[in-house]
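stage 2 :: seqdesign
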């Protein structure tokens, strides 16, 4: 498909001058440079947002494969950043298999995903996104980092509960907050 080649070429040109960027910056670049079909996408409409995202990811993963094969560059693609770096066999080894990559390289998903499926995908994304935000807040309440395991959660909760329990002269509001945090984390760690 010729349009995929022109999208991939435009992305590679952008990455040559912006080796560390976001997917959003890439999509904006494609829209501003009128690389078809990006100027037609209204990113406030779920179907268009999905289409722009899918085409960008498809071309990014295609470019990643080509650059790895040529052993010129490594293209690291995550949900929050895209990074182009010189080829390294160690880094390249981590990029060959990725279930997300498999999904985006199958162009049939672009054509066959219905609007209701897109709405479900976006809803699921936002639920996971908000759950991570809630998790961070709950861990912060217990004085823990995002990397804390469940054993650390239980230990921090016990320590704070002993200190903050109202029957032991502690702060009742703070006790309610740590209970809510522990309850949320119990659900997320299961």
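stage 2 :: out
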């Amino acid at each position: 498909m010729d349009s995929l080649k022109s999208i991939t070429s435009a992305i590679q040109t952008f990455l040559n001058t912006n080796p560390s960027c976001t997917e959003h910056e890439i999509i904006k670049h494609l829209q501003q440079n009128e690389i078809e079909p990006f100027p037609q996408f209204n990113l406030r409409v779920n179907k268009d947002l999905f289409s722009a995202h899918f085409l960008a990811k498809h071309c990014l993963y295609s470019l990643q494969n080509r650059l790895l094969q040529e052993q010129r560059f490594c293209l690291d693609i995550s949900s929050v950043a895209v990074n182009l770096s010189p080829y390294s066999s160690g880094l390249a080894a981590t990029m060959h298999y990725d279930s997300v990559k498999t999904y985006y390289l199958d162009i049939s998903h672009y054509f066959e995903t219905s609007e209701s499926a897109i709405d479900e995908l976006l809803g699921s994304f936002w639920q996971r996104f908000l759950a991570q935000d809630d998790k961070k807040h709950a861990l912060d309440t217990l004085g823990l980092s995002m990397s804390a395991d469940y054993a650390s959660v239980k230990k921090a909760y016990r320590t704070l509960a002993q200190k903050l329990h109202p029957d032991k002269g502690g702060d009742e509001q703070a006790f309610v907050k740590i209970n809510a945090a522990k309850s949320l984390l119990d659900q997320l760690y299961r």
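stage 3 :: structure notes
- Residues 2 and 64 are 18 Å apart (CA to CA).
- The beta strands are 20-21, 73-77, 82-86.
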